Amino acid sequence: MGVYEAGGNGSIGTTTATTCNCYDMSLRCWCRWKWGNHQQQQQNHHKLLHQRLVSHVFSYGFMFFLGCLVLYGSIGVFYGWLMFSKPYLRSTNVGFGLNSLGCQEDNEGSWSIGVYYGDSPFSLKPIESMNEWRDEGAAWPVANPVVTCASLSDANFPSNFVADPFLYVQGDTLFLFYETKNSITMQGDIGVAKSTDKGATWQQLGIALDEDWHLSYPYVFNYLGQIYMLPESSQKGELRLYRALNFPLQWTLEKVLIKKPLVDSFIINHAGEYWLFGSDHSGIGTRKNGQLEIWCSSSPLGPWKPHKKNPIYNVDKSVGARNGGRPFVYDGNLYRVGQDCGETYGRQVRIFKIEVLTKDDYKEVEVPLGFEEPSKGRNAWNGARYHHLDVQHLTSGKWIAVMDGDRVPSGDPVHRFILGSASLAAVTVVAVVLGMLLGAVKCIIPLNWCAHYSGKRNYILLGWERSNLFSSKVRRFCSRLNRVLFSVRGKMKPSTWFGKLVIAVTFVVGVALMCRGVKYFYGGNDAEEAYPLNGHYSQFTLLTMTYDARLWNLKMYVKHYSRCSSVKEIIVVWNKGRPPRSSDLDSAVPVWIRVEDQNSLNNRFKKDPMLKTRAVLELDDDIMMKCDDIERGFNVWRQHPDRIVGFYPRLISGSPLKYRAEKYARRHKGYNMILTGAAFMDHTVAFERYWSNEAKAGRELVDRYFNCEDVLLNYLYANASSSQTVEYVRPAWVIDTSKFSGVAISRNTNVHYKIRSSCLLRFSEIYGSIADRKWEFDGRKDGWGL
After folding, report:
1. Model pLDDT, residue 758
2. Against a cut of 0.70, is the pTM above it?
3. Half-sphere exposure of residue 22, counting CA atoms within 13 Å on the CB side?
4. Which residue of the set 710, 736, 772, 778 is catalytic?
5. Does residue 254 or residue 67 have the better pLDDT?
6. Which of 775-784 are b and which e, b meaning 16 or more Cβ less than 10 Å from the residue's Cβ?
7. pLDDT of 139-156, one tens digit each?
8. What span, in angstroms and rounded, lies between the C-alpha atoms of 91 and 77?
9. Is 710 a catalytic residue?
10. Quick one: which of 12, 288, 553, 612 has the most CB atoms within 10 Å?
């Protein structure tokens, strides 16, 4: 009791205080010891991590994995250089219509514009079917597309694409208004072009309308002598009407018609009222690209009253609710153009006949357009989609239309990036598997990720993993994956032939994945496009000569070349045996089979009224090359239509004259002959010369030897001009398919060359020698001599 009480006077309190201080000191000492121990553990842990990192980095397995990636990467770089580098484009831009600022790859697409003609809106044919001829650029016929991003970019208006075309007709002059995506601001502006030759050629006038927001769908119409434009300005949140101050380049805002972000709107006069069609995608529950609304007014200037049935549509985007161009009247009926956005944005246009349009009701039914679907895939300028049509009736009674098109679906660059990334990720997996099979990599999944791992682990993390079911399952999966691969390696002994085969196949799979990834990243949109010349595209006829024993070659030939962009049609000269039917051939263009009475090589150059193009590509049925090489050769011929432009050069020289292979021409750095087994020519010139009286003796010699028809044509060209008459273009690669079918015409090379040497001597006597002519290989067209 006394002690307790003494606590009250402070003596015992002092003792207590002392006791507390001792406790506090012991606690501090203990904490200091723990902290020091903890620091030591951290240092040891960091040191251990460093040692493990160094051991992993410099381990044999890691170095093998890194070496595999370097090897695969080198293969990918070589493949990319071999397949996708085009030095002939880098060395010269002559005629290719390229601008460094414009025509950049865009996620919205690569839209361009084509022109169509017809006796009605439902019988439209592309401009190339009209055989419009323009001497500039040897464009015969002029072919679609007629306006592209290059058209604007070359006129100093950088553009990524052009779309949403609308025509405005003033007498014999056509004005074309369209959306152009500025390559610098990445914003849609309204461009305008003019044509005085029914749409065959277009002069780019400039930018008609440029605001601080995106513009598209420039619907142009006339009202009371004034010209108005109703572009889409949904980004601004309102529908704005502009009036021309100085047509076609100066416009002023006339009025804001509706305070709603309407897209793809137009105004028409029907039954004494004005009707405004448009889509509002901003509302809650609105289905994008599947909504349509209508308004009514007594004037295009408003005020506008909504239709009682609004929204007219709020359906699936494939139905065609969204407008796709100007409505038109035909045979007293009103038609609306809609766009189907089902598979991708702007997949195709659809036509609807409006049966009822009143303030209380609206009804329409779909009718076929009669438009022939593109069949060349991405090689066609509109092969993937076409989403806008403006068709108008001319005073001549004919109909003219403009339509946009794209060769790739929406979002193609992003899609290719994802696939390319996935391919490269798969290559890393293949490298690990390859190392596992060879024993260089001990495990695919790190051991500390696996269940039943006996090494050191963090106790807190271990406790969390035990309580986490998903983590436990992942670790068990990793363990099983490692065990499976160990088991596979145990059964597949690398030293056996089977083991070597598996390793080889695995390596090849990695190479294929790497090449695929490189193609997705650097191969572009996988289209082999035509090359414009002076802003024009054109087409040519493909002509080949064959017989029944080479039908296998012909089928493969037609399937491949018919899908080249500039091929208009194919003519098959059938020299012997029972000819196939055109339907037996898988072709994207018309195929005409011309059966000959006599088996003669002279038939190759026979005049044919079926020829509708100025350019003819004489191409043997056993030659396979890329469409891009064909298109490049066609572009070079269009620059030199008076020459034979081809892919097989020869140099005729020596005394006496001797026929030699291409290596001789390469070694002597020049050529003076192009073999017509793969060559472009103007058939109106070439065939006329070949069947002239002057060439009669040469034709008789061709029939006697059953050889030398191409040599004869070269002599006839050389005899007609003292300037250069042949031009060489080197292809990226060529495959001779007759080597696989065993039906090569010239099986004995020595005999073949001997006959041709005889022809050289005889033709030189008749037409004069060509040995004194020689032209050096041009690296710009060669593509390899840089």
Report:
1. 95
2. yes
3. 6
4. 710
5. 254
6. eebbeebbbe
7. 788 999 999 999 999 999
8. 21
9. yes
10. 553
